[in-house]
């Protein structure tokens, strides 16, 4: 082999590794994002859009591990709404892999019941059905936020056969996680994510479960993060569970989370909430999957999405993570269309096909 070619191929893996950075105690900002394909004029237009047309309180774009755009207060901790579910999916991986959690266990085997009781057919649902929103259990939610207004009649659906976004599934999945691992969700977030990812703003004392136990005994597990710490979660996902050479989440589990369990066709048929947004989502294990897209930047993208306007979105095709927040305490919210437009417009600032 030609000596020059030898050194080229020998150095290539190192070059690729260096191209992807990871924040240490603080994030690094890209000094010249325009040199890496980011338009200054489009960035300015996007900032004006955020000001004029949204109620977003914090926004960040990360490319190759460096911040190329930020807006608002990205350090304040606030409620991330249903993004919590995607975080829980990440936590599941370690315990599925070591055998403590068997995704094929049924609610009957797990001795799961509830205030109004579960029907025999509902008790056949598995953990896998819960985390893919296909349980067929339509018991009332003790912590609202699902789409049970679109639910079929209780007991009419075979577990695994029908997709419906229901907080009963997700809250019960949280309970089962703690039951099977004998660990508190928030403690695991701290040890498995916050500490190794060196989150700058994580505060364990902010994390508290909530719910009306007269309706359902399964509490929700609200989470509070800063926008820049949410971006660390997204960067971990983008890198298939690896953080600067250390495996935090097994890459096979990352793939499992973002493998389609429900197509956008079925999802749109069962719940019409994305009508007129021009976005089609499939669903994996508590992650939303971008489908039916023509924009190369959106290829294989996936999101954690939360009420009012919270998101962690990963764009593998362009090595980008976007995180944004809308602080609940301010009483601010964004329409579903606005929340999704944000995620399309953000990457339109980038216009390099490489």
Automatic annotation (TrEMBL):
<feature type="domain" description="Beta-lactamase-related">
    <location>
        <begin position="59"/>
        <end position="339"/>
    </location>
</feature>
<dbReference type="InterPro" id="IPR001466">
    <property type="entry name" value="Beta-lactam-related"/>
</dbReference>
<keyword id="KW-0378">Hydrolase</keyword>
<feature type="signal peptide">
    <location>
        <begin position="1"/>
        <end position="19"/>
    </location>
</feature>
<dbReference type="GO" id="GO:0016787">
    <property type="term" value="F:hydrolase activity"/>
</dbReference>
<dbReference type="InterPro" id="IPR012338">
    <property type="entry name" value="Beta-lactam/transpept-like"/>
</dbReference>
<protein>
    <submittedName>
        <fullName>Serine hydrolase</fullName>
        <ecNumber>3.-.-.-</ecNumber>
    </submittedName>
</protein>
<dbReference type="InterPro" id="IPR050789">
    <property type="entry name" value="Diverse_Enzym_Activities"/>
</dbReference>
<dbReference type="Pfam" id="PF00144">
    <property type="entry name" value="Beta-lactamase"/>
</dbReference>
<keyword id="KW-0732">Signal</keyword>
């Amino acid at each position: 082999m030609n000596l020059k070619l030898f050194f080229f191929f020998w150095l290539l893996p190192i070059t690729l590794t260096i191209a992807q950075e990871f924040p240490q105690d603080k994030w690094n900002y890209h000094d010249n994002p325009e040199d890496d394909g980011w338009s200054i004029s489009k960035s300015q237009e996007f900032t004006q859009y955020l000001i004029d047309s949204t109620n977003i309180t914090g926004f960040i774009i990360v490319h190759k591990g460096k911040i190329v755009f930020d807006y608002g207060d990205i350090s304040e901790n606030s409620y991330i709404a249903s993004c919590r579910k995607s975080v829980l999916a990440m936590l599941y991986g370690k315990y599925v892999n070591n055998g403590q959690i068997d995704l094929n266990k049924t609610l009957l085997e797990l001795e799961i019941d509830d205030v109004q009781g579960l029907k025999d057919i509902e008790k056949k649902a598995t953990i896998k059905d819960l985390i893919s929103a296909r349980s067929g259990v339509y018991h009332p939610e003790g912590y609202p936020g699902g789409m049970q207004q679109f639910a079929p009649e209780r007991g009419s659906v075979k577990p695994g056969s029908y997709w419906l976004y229901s907080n009963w599934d997700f809250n019960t999945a949280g309970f089962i996680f703690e039951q099977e691992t004998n660990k508190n969700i928030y403690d695991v977030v701290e040890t498995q994510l916050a500490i190794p990812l060196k989150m700058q703003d994580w505060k364990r004392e902010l994390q508290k479960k909530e719910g009306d136990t007269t309706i359902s005994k399964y509490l929700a597990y609200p989470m509070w993060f800063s926008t820049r710490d949410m971006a660390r979660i997204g960067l971990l996902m983008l890198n298939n569970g690896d953080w600067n050479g250390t495996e935090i989440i097994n890459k096979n589990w990352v793939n499992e989370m973002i493998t389609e369990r429900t197509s956008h066709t079925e999802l749109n048929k069962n719940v019409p909430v994305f009508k007129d947004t021009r976005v089609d989502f499939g669903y994996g294990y508590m992650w939303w999957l971008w489908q039916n897209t023509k924009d190369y930047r959106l290829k294989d993208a996936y999101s954690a999405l939360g009420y009012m306007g919270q998101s962690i979105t990963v764009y593998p095709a362009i090595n980008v993570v976007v995180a944004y927040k809308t602080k609940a305490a301010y009483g601010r919210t964004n329409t579903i269309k606005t929340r999704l437009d944000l995620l399309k417009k953000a990457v339109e600032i980038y216009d390099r096909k490489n």
